[in-house]
Amino acid sequence: MxxxxxxxxxxxxxxxxxxxxxxxxxxxxxxxxxEWQCPSCQVAYIKASGExxxxxxxxxxxxxxxSATSGLLKWSVALGLLGLAIFLGTPLWTQQQxxxxxxxxxxxxxxxxxxxxxxxxxxxRKLFEQKGITYTELDIEKTTAGYDxxxxxxxxxxxxIVIDDKVIHGYDERAIHKNLKPWFKES
Length: 187
What we know:
Order of helices and strands: HHHEHEHEEH
Strand content: 5-15%
């Protein structure tokens, strides 16, 4: 003998309300509709409470209780706070970056790992001379100190420029300006 879902459900949950609040239909054990749906009027009920589901165009029944402006208000406040943080944080951030360069009056130590024949090395030397930057040049082909230092820095091409603890691989004029601009002479 095979039992239906509804019969099994009645055995497990005998205290559940079996009368539809909308049409007053009394559910019978032989009804084939799911337990959460009235077999007579086909209304679906919230499984936990037995209340009819209010059909809404968007979202769940709980969404109907919230007003449309509350979501808009939350997003407006969040975006406003984000904008305020960006607006107030940007000047502080740029000042913090500029302070280390201006705080020290002495030019940082600059080391150029280069070769004699390299065109980019020559361009780096010319830039340093034009801008009045004092530097130490180590030829990686002629000195062991230059070769060893070049390898320790992970050099795979020349020039390699070391400004204090910052390493610039290749001729990157933008990075050079960023790190040495406060000490450039006007030409």
